[in-house]
Amino acid sequence: MKVWKLPLAVRLALRNVFRNRRRTLITLSSVVLGSAALIAFDGYRNFAEWGLREMYIRSQLGHIQIYKKGYRASKGMNPYAYLIANPEEIKKTIAETLGERLKVVTARLELHGLITRGGQSFNFIAQGIEVANERKMSALDDGTSSALKVKRGQTLADDEVGSVLLGNELCEALGVNEGDLLSLMGASAIGSLNATDLLWKGCFSTISKEYDKVAAIMPLADAQRFAATDHVLKLVVMLKNTEWTDQALRDLEKVFAEKNYDLELVSWRELADYYRQVMVFLGGMFLVIATIIAIVVVFSIVNTMTMAVFERVQEIGTIRALGATGNQILRLFVLEGFLLGVIGGILGAMMGGVTAIFINQAKIMMPPPPGSSDGFLLQLRLYPKSFLIGFSVAVIASLLASVYPAWRAARLRVVDALRHV
Known about the structure:
- By secondary structure, the chain is of the alpha+beta class.
- 54% of the residues lie in helices and 19% in strands.
């Protein structure tokens, strides 16, 4: 039976890498720590991307929003001019088109006006919602809600009417208590001034503290009664998987065109401005951190390889005298750097995975981000690309760092190397 062995060049390179174990250990430490740090930070970036995306989708945006054509171009200045008159027919079309991909489709009506309690008045932006459908929309796979957090009081029941939820900041400003009746006043769809009294039910918070200063949520029936209309402003489509958004959007656009619906469809990506800004910021931060780590690794390995060249001048001269070419010496030292990167990258990937497990099990609570009223549980979400990034940076940085010392070793003259002391 033939026993497979490593190629001679690889065996020589490995032997040289671990010749000075203390120095190699110090160099490997920088590679391993750098690789693990990149993996952990990419895990945090993945968590931030997923968490922020799902929060916006489940609490506000859904995967696809449907408006009457012209509404977005109008910047929402006259919403009652762009109401959808046949929401149930459109819901049926959506369900038939998307089939098993559809989680729920819900209707909303937006209101603006003043809300008053005890002589205090504040502006409000209210969403009239189908409570049962919104609950399905915000539910995670385990049945819990990921979006709307009721801080005080109770949430709306599925068949409830005559009640309202307020954003936490608006609750504090009004000083609401159990049993309070709140007066809402604003324009109706027919242009007249309308008012209604609703029972305060609870205070909620979202990811945006500014939104919580003006936000209100009420049953759709109350919103339609307030606006004096049976129509809705928009339909929100929630899919079972965010990755299906683009295909679902194309399918709906095709069917809507065939049915001549005077509607426009918008993906959540076009609506999530804050999400895009945060992702650009985190991407830039990751690039800076990766660059710093790569520079540290490069200088560490350059130092190690340069010392190795100085210590092995006579050895290099002897190898050259036995017939080795400068290119062979160059390849040997580059291979040593490559192996340092491979070993460091593998150990870094293992350390990054262990770090993620430890952090995820530690249940670390982070303070509220700027503009938010709630902290969050720190978690790292590692994907295969996270380990690939950490490993690749370790290997590429090590290869680049080994080029200059290898070049110097290959340029040594045989006579000078042999008499070097």
